[in-house]
Automatic annotation (TrEMBL):
This is Germination protease. One of its GO terms (biological process) is spore germination. It is an enzyme of class 3 (hydrolase). The keyword Cell membrane does not apply. It comes from Cellulosilyticum lentocellum (strain ATCC 49066 / DSM 5427 / NCIMB 11756 / RHM5).
Amino acid sequence: MDGYEKVGNFSPRTDLAIEISNALKLDRDDSYEIPGVEVKQKALEEGALAVTKVRILNTEGEKNMGKPIGDYITIESNGLKQNNPELHEKIISVLAEAIKSLLPEKKQDPLNILVIGLGNRFATPDTLGPKVANQVFVTRHMALKEPELLDEGVCYLSSFAPSVMGLTGIETAEVIRGVADNVKPDCIIAIDALAARSATRINTTIQITNTGISPGAGVGNKRKELNEATIGCKVIAVGVPTVVDTVTLVSDALNDLISHMLKQAEHSPFYDVLKDLTAEEHYQLIKESIYPEISDLFVTPKEIDEVMEYLSSIVANGINLAVHPGMTLKDINKYTY
């Protein structure tokens, strides 16, 4: 169910576990706990930064959430899309800790990490993966040729951006599996742009999970999954929602309009018609009325070019600090910029 928030039969697109858990808790008591799911939240930096951990514990939780068993860590901050270097450094630190918590235990010292940048470098909202792949601190070539150059606390890291099937004609998972068979990583870190249920989460949220990823799922182009079962090693996925689908956006606007109209039309026949419409009926009404002209369109903010520079730098440095614990941000920036 990657790419959809399923509440009953109502399934707007989302890749975010936090949005699915919030939807399942909607209109319930604050103490309600989703069966098979554990949710923990904490605020940092005086509320400027929030971290939520959604843990799907068993098959019951998997069924309720429509996502695989595992951990889903979400970092939220409006500062992600703003030119705020001080806050960005704090977000990088929190992101590094989240990634580090999901890395496998060392089978060898150092770890062998393969970073995969998923996405289409020619479509701006989908360039996160390729941009991050270009900014991580690559060391595997040095480990093979001049290992004495690597200090303690620096892992063997290689990086690769396989592009998309529409440009290569090759299934992305097949390309990655071929690379992994040769590199033999202990862990793959895959980066991809995601889709959100709410426009407020666009460019303000990072999701980190140890359950792998299905490239293209957020925009309905679901490809073969990348996970431990298909690739042969642990897969950590890092994603940022950069788009929201048009139907969801218009549906939300309609809901707001109806709420306003209900206040104006209370105790009238019009009120009785509107108040009985469910969220699913709102969504289906919009989907049918704009199909097929714009029902498959996705929306991204006009400042996406600038924001993508911030996001790629934050995600790349979060990975760098997580997998190269012997280096500081200042050390890494000397070599990657």
